[in-house]
Design brief:
The protein is an alpha/beta fold and about 230 residues long. The protein is about 50% helix and about 15% strand.
Length: about 230
């Protein structure tokens, strides 16, 4: 497996490279320090399985550049790894088809979890999006990500109806299903959820299928989106 770490901070690259090499034995880690060197490597002969992409390195124009990298290299799973913890930015990245969004404050283990999840065909959704919270070293504060208008519009009523509908659907879940859905929304794999609740992995899969059926969705990403809309 080939993994590309694209970040302008050498210490970040070295840390991520060391941990990923240890957690994914046999993988080959490549490094880039800006958008130009990233594009050069991606256009070469090596086929990358995963690209960890910093939003703020030289040459990047935020999500626009990340989306371009992803679309130009559909064979690679592209995960944004960034210091930007704005849930709006994270949601924009995921809505444009990026495979994951990892705030650097969550640490390198979050990146490891993200790589595992995207390689299984899922999307890594950090808990900060679902909780509407910005985390930093000294403070945890709520963040209102809704657009506030002086007068309500028809779209406001539609959004409220959607949230009410999702709330009603979530109420059909059992307590254990809600706990599993929360864990899914935090980007945990079935194995990690099984370890968390001390149950067999097949039990988690059964719960997940029940959740998908009740929510009317077909995968983990869609289930997390329903949870997000209801929050």
């Amino acid at each position: 497996m080939n993994i590309l770490i694209a970040d302008d901070h050498s210490l970040i690259r070295e840390l991520f490279a060391a941990v990923l090499a240890a957690r994914f034995p046999g993988s080959v880690i490549h490094e880039a320090r800006d958008l130009a060197s990233t594009q050069e490597l991606l256009s070469g002969s090596v086929k990358y399985d995963v690209v960890l992409l910093d939003l703020q390195m030289p040459g990047m124009r935020g999500i626009e550049s990340a989306v371009a990298v992803s679309e130009d290299n559909p064979q690679s799973k592209t995960i944004v790894v960034t210091g930007n913890e704005d849930p709006c930015v994270a949601l924009e990245a995921l809505r444009h088809g990026l495979n994951g969004y990892v705030p650097k404050s969550l640490g390198v283990e979050a990146a490891v979890s993200a790589v595992k999840l995207v390689l299984s065909g899922e999307t890594y959704v950090p808990s900060l999006i679902l909780n509407g919270v910005v985390y930093n070293a000294d403070n945890v504060r709520p963040l209102d990500v809704k657009v506030v208008r002086d007068t309500p519009t028809a779209n406001d009523a539609d959004d409220t109806d959607d949230r009410d509908a999702d709330d009603a659907v979530l109420e059909t879940l059992t307590d254990r299903e809600l706990a599993v859905l929360l864990a899914i929304s935090q980007g945990m794999s079935n194995k990690e959820i099984a370890n968390k609740f001390d149950v067999a992995e097949i039990t988690v899969k059964v719960h997940a299928q029940g959740i998908f059926r009740k929510l009317g969705v077909s995968n983990r990403t869609q289930a997390a989106a329903v949870y997000l809309t209801a929050c």
